[in-house]
Structures are given as C-alpha cells and as structure tokens.
Amino acid sequence: xxxxxxxxxxxxxxxRLAAVTRRLGQACARAGVPPRDVRFVAVSKxxxxxxxxxxxxxxxxxxxESRVQEAQAKWPPxxxxxxxxxxxxxxxxxxxKATAAVRAFDVLHSVDRPxxxxxxxxxxxxxxxxxxxxxxxxxxDEPHKSGVPVAAADAFVKECLDTxxxxxxxxxxxxxxxxxxxPHFGQLRALAxxxxxxxxxxxxxADFETAVAEGATTVxxxxxxxxxxxxx
Length: 232
Hints:
This protein has helices at 13-31, 49-57, 68-81, 98-104, 114-127, 153-163, 181-194, 208-213, 223-226, and strands at residues 39-43, 62-65, 86-89, 107-111, 132-138, 148-149, 168-173, 199-201, 218-221. By secondary structure, it is an alpha/beta fold.
C-alpha cells in the first residue's frame, strides 16, 4: 500500500492579516502616524478564491492585482458578496486595457507614460469612472523597470494633471532589488512634496515598516499575508 502524501497546509490568512496589521500599527506608532492614515493593500495576484474569501471574511477590503484579466475573472462575484471591497492595480498597464482597468479597479498605481495617461483620460470620460491614480517612478532609474525617470517625474505629474486631467493623488515606487530601500523611499517622498502630492504607495512584505518610517500612505503586502506566490 502506498502511503498517502500529507496535505499541504493552508496558510492562516486571518492570522497573517492580523500579524501584518499589528506590525503596521507598531510602525505607525514609531513614526508618529495614526494607523488609519496608512492603507494596507493585500496583494492577491495569482491567488485563488479560497485565499481571497478567507481574507474577505477576516474583514479585509483592500486588494492588489497586477493583471486586468485576472481581476475581471476573479473579483466580480467576490465583490458582490463583500460590499466595500476596493481593488488596486499594481502592475504595468497596457494602453489597450485602459478602459477595462478603469472599469475594474478603484486605484491605479502604475501610470508611467504619456500614451497611457491619454488612454486613461479617454477611458475615464467614456466610463464616467475616475479611479485615483499614482504616478509610478523608476526610483532607481533601472533600465528594464517600469516607471517614469526620476528627473522627469515632476514634469510628468504636471502633464497628467494639466493636460490629461487625471486624478493623480501620489507617487509609487519599487526600490531596486537588494538595495537599502530607505534612501529610495526618502527620495520618493521628496519628489512627491515637489509635485504637491501627499500620497505615497511604497513598501512591500520585506520593507513596509521602513516605508512607513519614510512617509508611506499605502503599503502593498502580499507574501506576508498569502504565503509564497503560486505560479500564474
């Protein structure tokens, strides 16, 4: 007789959410910031309905997805059952998916080029929806990473606001892998201040506490909540 393989243990989503929320609260206390002023987005990309349902039933309502089609497939029935759920697009966005993104998401974190800004402006006029927008800054000026170059960030924010009329609320960044994130977070904060923006989307599972210390108003935490990301 062949021995049965032990079942894979499912992560305790509610417990993980509580642990991250506790750490986030402690980070806010150290920074002198009310916890309500820092939004906790649980990054749910590539995770299935059971994990999302567990998080929703634990009371969480902000979730991050990186692909428009995945969000369209997963979220409508879940949002119907859990009113008040807000979806954040945290991945790169193609211009031909601008209208679908505006319909599906409540916050867009990755506005990074004029053609996309123009497409989003058209989509918002067409749909009547105006999700909040973050301009993504390539804070390390890495050749193969999405985001507007640091030197062009202020001019691009003005273009988004004045030319395209987008509801830009802040800046977003992903620091270079393996580097100390703190200087990059501090630089993003300074760029936002130069542009007159108050919102900062920065910090993930490994560094969200550092991001809070540097002024983050939104943190995007995935693995610490859902465990290792499954293959898409």
